[in-house]
């Protein structure tokens, strides 16, 4: 009985301590949980000098494995792939960088963030890493960068996987397209509570984010609001005014297209455009998934990805 009382006392202290850290030091707790997720994915945070920039990135898997470069979407960062990593690092050398304009990379509003520039910078990153050829994958904006990279540097790729990528226009308009045409940015966050709306817009079944963590998301967005607004409208310009529909036939890399049926940002009708345009492309559409399949359904998404990669 005495031992049980001691257990309850210790448990109570731990719970109170956890709540105190959550309330008083939410960023410390957030960092702790983020790092735990990295450890689960066997990822290590690193950085490398690329020209005049320092690129932060996560890396995991065997050092002699085939490189698998994964690019995050708008508003995201390298940790967008942390939940996906445990499924992929057994065979492949997974590398997930922060793209310029996001995460811990440079966030200079005076720089260019168009897709041609981003693809060129990714090439420079691979050069600095000493990687001549790799498998590439990208979600949303990162998929647009990957597609642009495949067109501009075809000899650098073993394969390409597109996760709900931007850069093409489908038969049906998405909710994001409609908002953008009305001059609105639906990915802009106006308050901590507004984070819930944004997450519900991105994911079909969004995870619940505690209030203190929503506050962190909002503070980080607000700190870079003007830059993110610039990048968003650059992305809209590149993706809807100058889409790559008529260039898809030039893609040489074996390509897998992964999509969530309920994507509100980029309509699922883009899958037909990509599959019809890219020679010998394969596709898979997940039900009850939105814009970020590698987060919403990482195991099923990774299974299809691994099956595809095994061919090349």
What are the defining features of this structure?
alpha/beta, disordered N terminus, 312 residues, 8 strands, single chain, eight-stranded mixed β-sheet
Quick structural summary:
The chain has 312 residues and is α/β, with parallel strands linked by helices.
Task: Report on this structure.
The chain has 312 residues and is α/β, with parallel strands linked by helices. Helices cover 45% and strands 16% of the residues. The protein has 12 helices and 8 strands. It has helices at 2-24, 26-40, 85-88, 115-129, 141-152, 175-181, 194-202, 211-223, 225-241, 270-277, 293-296, 298-309, and strands spanning 43-50, 53-60, 67-71, 93-97, 134-139, 157-163, 255-260, 282-286. It has an 8-stranded mixed β-sheet with strand order 1-2-4-3-5-6-7-8, sandwiched between helices. Helix 10 (270-277) links the parallel strand 7 and strand 8. Helix 1 (2-24) crosses helix 2 and helix 4 crosses helix 5 (141-152). The relative contact order is 0.13. Mean pLDDT is 92; it is low at 3-22.
